[in-house]
Amino acid sequence: MEIHSLEQLRSGNFKNVKKIKISAALTEFPKELFEFTETLELLDLSNNLLKSLPDEMVQFKKLKILFFSDNQFTEFPLILGQCAQLSMVGFKANNINFIPEQAFPETLQWLILTNNQIERLPSSIGKCVPLQKVALAGNNLKSLPDEMVNCKNLELLRISANQFTELPQWLLEMPRLAWLAYSGNPCTYENSISKKLPLVNWNTVSLMEQLGEGASGVISKAHLKENNFGTDKEFIAVKVFKGEVTSDGYPEDEMKISAEIPKHKNLVTVLGKIYDHPENKDGLIFELIPPAYKNLGMSPSFATCSRDTFKEGTTFTFSAILKILKSIASACIQLHLNGIMHGDLYAHNILIDDKANTLFGDFGAATPYDLSKHTSKLLERIEVRAFGYLIDDLLNHLHSKDKNSKSITKLMDLKNICLLEEVLLRPDFNHIVRYLEEIH
Fold first, then answer.
1. pLDDT over 90 for what percent of the chain?
2. Contact (CB, 8 A) for 336 and 429
3. Which residue, 333, 337, 363, is CA-closest to 183?
4. Banded pLDDT at 242 (limits 50, 70, 90)
5. pLDDT, average across residues 111-119
6. CA angle at residue 257 from 255 to 259, to 5 degrees?
7. CA within 20 to 30 Å of 410's CA: 77, 282, 288, 359, which one?
8. Which residues contact 349 (CB under 8 A, 6 or more apart)?
9. Parallel, antiparallel or unpaired: strands 235-241 and 217-224
10. Domain range list for the chain
11. For 178, how many CA atoms within 13 A lie in the half-sphere containing its CB?
């Protein structure tokens, strides 16, 4: 049972409600919500005008997921620290500049504070042992509290578009960290970013059908009227950015890093950058991917948190799994040889066709790094852990006819060493490719 409007909420016709989502220019927390303190599990009051929450929030005994994105909070509500079941909290795009100590519930698993004005996190975040996924892009953070080293379950961290002058050593040694993005900070290594994408006038691009939409932009098929930037492709794909800070960071950083993406048969090819858009929006032009290619997986759900999901009934043959893994590992070698951490190595960012031909894309979370520094080995091996999760996901969907293959043991061994919690004990992608080549 779900409620989606104030009218439904006030009707009194609903019992045992688990989910409520209301966007109605609310300036006060609706008192009618307290009729569901025994059953409510998800509350989404995003896109309203709220500035505070009542202390009575603690009455919601089963509340697990809470969204207040695009409201007017300037302070993270202290009362939420006392909500005993909260596991996911989102205050994206508010005006939050202060978070009190003890404001985060110790049950917290997924925290979204993208696009605020936060200058520091409370040291009490170190008590959030289950914390697994944290989105902090687009704030004014200069550091992370050392107490976060206690958040040993942290797997995904987005700190792009902040004010970090360096990353703490303990962060790069976190045992389960697999997805890290930190572009758009003073510490981001940009000396290697020198390439410029060819410019394409928007007036030479004719949009066709929409192909997809992500956090940062809309991707459409398009007809290119003038092939004047080194391609003979008549049809291309265009990504027009929404122009706002996303969980990955600034669009301008994605465009910078896209110019540095090396040519590789398993990497999506970036062709150019648009200019003269009528709404002054930025955009990228890509080589059009044949329609036979489909997403390998789907984005994580509330339940899986940091792990991808797959359509029910999805299976892969062992030979297909091996081909996909060889392709992605080969692409990652090229990225890291160029000092680029993808930051979002997930099945949902991988495309395959029915022959397991593979393309890896979406560079929104990519970060350039200095290959000459000792931290470069740590950064690559953080990504190796994400590769280990990919192996695990694919093996979990192995076709039943292949489950007795002796080669599966070798692939499981590779997964296990990629997932080692001691970061530097994991192999690099060169070793992974050589290992995969020996499996048949």
1. 80
2. yes
3. 363
4. confident
5. 98
6. 75
7. 359
8. 360, 361, 362
9. antiparallel
10. 199-287, 294-437
11. 21
pTM of the model: 0.94
Tokens 């979002």: give the residue.
344
158: which strand partners?
135, 181
Structure tokens at 278: 């009528």
Alpha helix stretches (DSSP H) within 154-202: 169-172
Give the single-character DSSP code of 373. S
The token pair that represents 116 in the structure block: 């605020």
Please report, for residues 2, 112, 115, 245, the alpha-carbon distance to residue 96 in angstroms, rounded to integers and kept in the order given.
29, 12, 9, 15
CA distance 289 to 268: 8
What are φ and ψ of residue 241, in 5° steps?
A: -75, 150
Encode burial over 250-285: b for 16+ CB neighbours within 10 A, e otherwise. bbebbbbbbbbbeebebbbbbbbbbeebeeeebbbb
Report the C-alpha gap between 363 and 253 in whole angstroms.
10
Q: What is the mean pLDDT of residues 43-57?
A: 97
| Mean pLDDT across the chain | 93
Topology at the third CATH level for domain 199-287: Phosphorylase Kinase; domain 1 (3.30.200)
Strand positions, DSSP E, 150-289: 156-158, 179-181, 199-201, 205-213, 217-224, 235-241, 270-275, 283-287
Amino acid at 259: A
